[in-house]
Automatic annotation (TrEMBL):
Protein name (database record): ABC-type glutathione transport system ATPase component
Lipoprotein listed as a keyword: no
Record family assignment: Belongs to the ABC transporter superfamily.
Swiss-Prot/TrEMBL keywords: ATP-binding, Nucleotide-binding, Transport
Domain of life: Bacteria
Organism in which the protein naturally occurs: Kibdelosporangium banguiense
InterPro entries the record matches: AAA+_ATPase (IPR003593), ABC_transp_ATP-bind (IPR050319), ABC_transporter-like_ATP-bd (IPR003439), ABC_transporter-like_CS (IPR017871), P-loop_NTPase (IPR027417)
PROSITE patterns: ABC_TRANSPORTER_1, ABC_TRANSPORTER_2
Signal peptide: none
Start and end residues of each ABC transporter domain: 4-245
SUPFAM superfamilies: P-loop containing nucleoside triphosphate hydrolases (SSF52540)
Length: 262
């Protein structure tokens, strides 16, 4: 199948009495061009699963295939290599961006490292424009940018590799609601234009509803519910899913919507 297929993923951290089973026989499948929401309370295993799908953490057992190719058999370099095929974006752009490099240089570096055939300067400006930043942002260091602008730089740098898979771990949780929706609209558009397959980890169930075709609900490293987002959210079968949905604070005067400014 084209897309992300993970089967029988098991991950434990630590040993002996300190052993934590972070993922217990977790399987997910998401079609190419679709988005998978990964939700669950803190410590349920979301980031662990994201890192396994991204090939940043080797599971104790289980397999991950991206567009039908096992992660384990992907070459280290070249067009089919893991770093070209997938990119991961994290909650805190401060820790992933190089503080001593201007934004434009970071994006150009990603183009060169990934062997993208292009005029690096032109492509860098195109990527900045794509994420809604002016060409002048190229000269700014991360500390000169706002949190939302830094996250856009992180997205532009991830897109520089022309990935087919994007794994996003809480990428908007540090941002205010209007910046969140702008970044989510951007991701949705990029996904639709480039047939990107997205895995989206978040605590925000409204975001999942707005952005994700499928959702899995994790509790203590187990999947307790999975399926099309509307089915799972409108007719939750599991008590835990219901409690997560009931816990969502509602602010009627400012409903969250990715489509708000369309
Ligand atoms: N490097 C690690 N070493 C030991 N235990 C870890 C490590 N990373 C995660 N864990 C444990 O594995 C479990 C799952 O952690 P994980 O980070 O995947 O949860 P999460 O759902 O992403 O939580 P959050 O919403 O707080 O980010 C937790 O019990 C956590 O304490
Ligand atoms: Mg996490």
């Amino acid at each position: 199948m084209n897309g992300i297929v993970a089967e029988g993923i098991e991950v434990s951290y630590g040993r002996g009495r300190r052993k934590v089973r972070a993922l217990n026989h977790v399987s997910v499948a998401v079609q190419r061009g679709n988005s998978l929401g990964i939700v669950g309370e803190s410590g349920s295993g979301k980031s662990t699963l994201g890192r396994v799908i991204a090939g940043l953490l080797e599971p104790d057992s289980g397999t991950v295939d991206l567009d039908g190719t096992p992660l384990a058999s992907m070459p280290r370099t070249g067009p089919g290599s893991l770093s070209r095929v997938r990119q991961m974006i994290f909650q805190d752009p401060n820790s992933s961006l190089n503080q001593r490099m201007p934004a434009g240089a970071m994006i150009r570096e990603a183009l060169v490292v990934n062997g993208i055939e292009c005029d690096p300067k032109e492509e860098m400006v195109r990527l900045l424009d794509l994420v809604g930043l002016p060409a002048t942002a190229a000269d700014s260091y991360p500390f000169e940018l706002s949190g939302g602008q830094r996250q856009r730089i992180a997205i532009a740098r991830a897109l520089a590799a022309q990935p087919r898979f994007l794994i996003c771990d809480e990428i908007t949780s540090a941002l205010d609601v209007s910046v969140q929706s702008a970044i989510l609209r951007l991701l949705r558009d990029i996904r639709d234009q480039n047939e990107l397959t997205l895995a989206f980890i978040t605590h925000n169930l409204d975001i999942v509803r707005a952005l994700c075709d499928e959702v899995i609900v994790l509790q203590d490293g187990h999947i307790v519910e999975a399926g099309p987002t509307s089915d799972v959210f409108d007719h939750p079968q599991d008590l835990y899913t219901r409690s997560l949905l009931d816990a969502v604070p509602r602010f009627p005067w400012r409903p969250f919507s990715v489509a708000a400014a369309d």
